[in-house]
Amino acid sequence: MDLIKIDNLRFFANHGVFKQEQEQGQYFYADLRLYLDFKAADETDDLTKTADYGAVCNFAYEHLTKNTFKLIETAADSLAEEILISFPLIREVFVEIKKPDAPIQLEFECVSVCTTRKWHRVFIAVGSNLGNKEENINKALKLLSAEQSIRIKKVSELIETPPYGYEVQPVFLNGAFEAETTLEPMELLRLLKEVEEDCGREKTFRWGPRIIDLDIIFYDDVVMDSEKLTIPHREMHLRDFVKIPLCEIAPDFVHPILKKRVCDL
Fold first, then answer.
1. Predicted structure pTM score
2. CA dist list (Å): 257 to 43, 88, 179, 181, 211
3. In this structure, are residues 90 and 84 in contact, taking their beta carbons and an 8 Å threshold?
4. How far is Cα 17 from Cα 70, in angstroms, rounded to an integer?
5. d(Cα 86, Cα 56) in Å, to the nearest integer?
6. How far apart are CA 118 and CA 116, in angstroms?
7. What backbone phi and psi angles, to 5 degrees, belong to 170?
8. For residue 59, how many other CB atoms are within 10 A of its CB?
9. Rounded CA gap, 245 and 249, in Å?
10. Candidate list 98, 99, 133, 139, residue with the active-site label
11. pLDDT tens, 75-126?
12. Is 99 a catalytic residue?
């Protein structure tokens, strides 16, 4: 990954927790690290093949001066997210916001916060066995596509599959899609649950009928196991209704625990 560095972008803003900071304002500085592949720009000498760092500076300046944040942590994270969304060639961004006049009653040089945000590669299984199944799935994809933090890249064909776990229910329509997201795993999970609710899903028993089901199967090469979320999905290698659609769109993706390609699973 190639790198563009921007140091000490100076701006005056009214960020701060205290009333005096919000009213009087102060100077801040921002450091940016933009990670992208500019091989195409190297070969063509074409500005459109890379990130225009002048445009990024102007964008950062506008974002940090036209918005007001109590916390510079929020300012840094917000800027990182907006840069990724607004400049498609940038794959990862590091932002440091420096506050040399922070309200500290001791000698110090500067206070700063740092954050890194990037586009993550994710695979999500989708299924429905109530109502108009295809329409339910299309609605979920449309809702996700409307989110700036999600870019859907590939969608599998939909396949009809028998119920899993609890068999006395209608057959399912299942598929999978690949997406890029700036969201962290738990943020992505919350978004998927919101989309399920917007599509009309109601709580039932485990493996019961549902109007829509969205499950995170892979998230980069992340391995995590918490009370609310396990990645990779712990049963994906046992479920043909997950593996078959995944094999269509990502046959060579390697399961980070089993160390096998999807097509071999």
1. 0.90
2. 38, 31, 21, 22, 31
3. yes
4. 5
5. 9
6. 7
7. -65, 155
8. 16
9. 7
10. 99
11. 999 999 999 999 999 999 999 999 999 999 999 999 999 999 999 999 999 9
12. yes
